[in-house]
């Protein structure tokens, strides 16, 4: 069971709070430019929607050198009239400290879970510190399903630009949905609501010296909640606007971290996911409305160059992992300009099986998937370039259906290995 020895000044902050009904965690690292607005939005949301609950904001910082924690301490929502309420009955406390342990978001979350446990929190939420679209209403949407309807885990549901979230759209959502049978649209969204009960459950897991403590925490939280039988929902939060990343430039390392954690969880929960053959929706809260989205620039030419370089340099590895037939289909992709959804589903499954069989060292294996992912993403972006979002979602739904219909192939290959 997890237990963190906090430094004396942090223990003093926790003792001064004593008890909290709600804990909202904000992990940070050099986010002085954006975190003040996030803190004020959280304070406003707690004041407006939970005026009678004792609440605390926990900033778990990764050793920022830009004054992030000073900004947190100085940020306050003083004008409650601006959000159309007279006052807040119970003031919101703040605890801000540098976490200890392996550097990464997971270690920051571990500290937040531990403080929620010590304070006896009934409901918790975590939000990213670089958000530019956060609104006070997010607190109601993430926390009320826990407090009033006894859900244990509330994932975010966003509208995102059609070129954003490509790892989620092409791998993590369809794979998680096919494996565990629940349609959680943003399993690695970054903002979550959860019960004090599941926070304690997370702390009991022996993962805090692993890659989960670095960057695999989001998919680990979602998968653990579903696979261990907790009540899961999602809430529509509007737009997710943060500093966008070009899928061809910045996401290869994230691919390694997130896909690695997802494959590792497949090992942990094999007995849970192998019998599941269809998916069902989860309860969704919030009024879905159209939102304005910032354009995400992508360089599909560079992404296709990376795919062609992979074909030249990794061809033998791909042939070994995918088999001769699918490798031949991959070779033809440059000619056709079409990436069949069934082929992509088999590729992801073949990589999961190769991970299970330990055909290559973990890092080498997953990073060899990166050029295939970039080729798939570039072709997808060119396909949807002139589509509206409902049409794009239809294309993603077709991909999810391919993952689900191909699952017998995954299970049969898994059991033979």
List the helices and strands and how they pair.
Blueprint: H1 8-17, E1 22-28, H2 32-49, E2 55-61, H3 68-74, E3 93-98, H4 105-119, E4 123-126, H5 137-149, E5 153-159, H6 166-180, E6 182-183, E7 192-195, H7 196-203, H8 217-227, E8 232-239, H9 247-250, H10 252-268, H11 270-273, E9 280-281, E10 283-285, H12 300-313, H13 315-322, H14 324-331, H15 333-336, H16 341-357, H17 362-384, H18 389-405, H19 407-416
Parallel strand pairs: 1-2, 1-4, 2-3, 5-8, 6-9, 8-10
Antiparallel strand pairs: 4-7, 5-7
Helix pairs in contact: 2-3, 2-5, 4-7, 6-10, 6-18, 8-10, 10-17, 12-17, 13-14, 16-17, 16-18, 16-19
In short:
It contains 19 helices and ten strands. With 417 residues, it is α/β, with parallel strands linked by helices.
Structural description of this entry:
The protein is α/β, with parallel strands linked by helices and 417 residues long. It folds into two domains: 278 residues, Spore Coat Polysaccharide Biosynthesis Protein SpsA, Chain A (Alpha-Beta Complex), CATH 3.90.550.10; 106 residues, no CATH class. 53% of the residues lie in helices and 12% in strands. Helix 2 runs parallel beside helix 3, helix 4 packs across helix 7 and helix 13 crosses helix 14. 47% of the residues are buried.
């Amino acid at each position: 069971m997890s237990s963190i020895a906090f430094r004396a000044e942090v223990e003093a902050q926790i003792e001064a709070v004593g008890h909290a009904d709600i804990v909202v965690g904000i992990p940070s690292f050099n986010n002085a430019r954006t975190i003040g607005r996030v803190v004020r939005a959280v304070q406003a949301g707690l004041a407006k929607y939970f005026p009678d609950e004792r609440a605390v904001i926990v900033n778990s910082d990764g050793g920022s050198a830009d004054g992030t924690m000073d900004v947190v301490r100085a940020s306050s929502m003083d004008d409650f009239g601006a959000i159309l309420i007279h006052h807040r009955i119970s003031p919101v406390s703040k605890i801000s400290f540098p976490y200890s342990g392996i550097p990464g978001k997971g270690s920051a979350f571990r500290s937040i879970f531990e403080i929620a446990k010590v304070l006896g929190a009934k409901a918790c939420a975590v939000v990213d510190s670089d958000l530019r679209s956060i609104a006070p209403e997010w607190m109601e949407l993430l926390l009320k399903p826990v407090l009033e309807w006894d859900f244990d885990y509330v994932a975010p549901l966003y509208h995102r630009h059609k070129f954003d979230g490509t790892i989620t759209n092409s791998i993590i959502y369809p794979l998680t949905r096919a494996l565990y049978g629940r349609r959680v649209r943003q399993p690695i969204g970054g903002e979550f609501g959860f019960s004090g009960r599941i926070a304690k459950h997370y702390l009991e897991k022996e993962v805090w010296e692993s890659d989960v403590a670095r960057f695999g925490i989001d998919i680990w939280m979602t998968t653990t909640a579903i696979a261990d039988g907790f009540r899961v929902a999602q809430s529509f939060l509007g737009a997710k606007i943060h500093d966008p990343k070009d899928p061809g430039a910045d996401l290869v390392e994230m691919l390694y971290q997130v896909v690695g954690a997802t494959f590792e969880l497949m090992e942990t929960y094999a007995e849970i996911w192998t019998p599941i053959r269809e998916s069902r929706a989860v309860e969704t809260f919030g009024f879905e409305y159209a939102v304005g989205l910032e354009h995400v620039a992508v360089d599909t030419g560079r992404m296709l160059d990376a795919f062609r370089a992979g074909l030249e340099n990794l061809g033998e590895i791909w042939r070994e992992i995918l088999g001769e037939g699918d490798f031949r289909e991959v070779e033809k992709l440059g000619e056709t300009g079409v990436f069949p959804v069934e082929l992509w589903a088999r590729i992801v499954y073949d990589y999961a099986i190769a991970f299970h069989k330990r055909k290559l060292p973990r890092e080498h294996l997953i990073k060899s998937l990166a050029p295939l992912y970039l080729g798939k993403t570039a072709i997808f972006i060119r396909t949807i370039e002139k589509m509206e979002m409902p049409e794009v979602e239809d294309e993603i739904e077709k991909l999810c259906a391919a993952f689900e219909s191909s699952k017998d192939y995954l299970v049969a290959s898994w059991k033979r290995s």
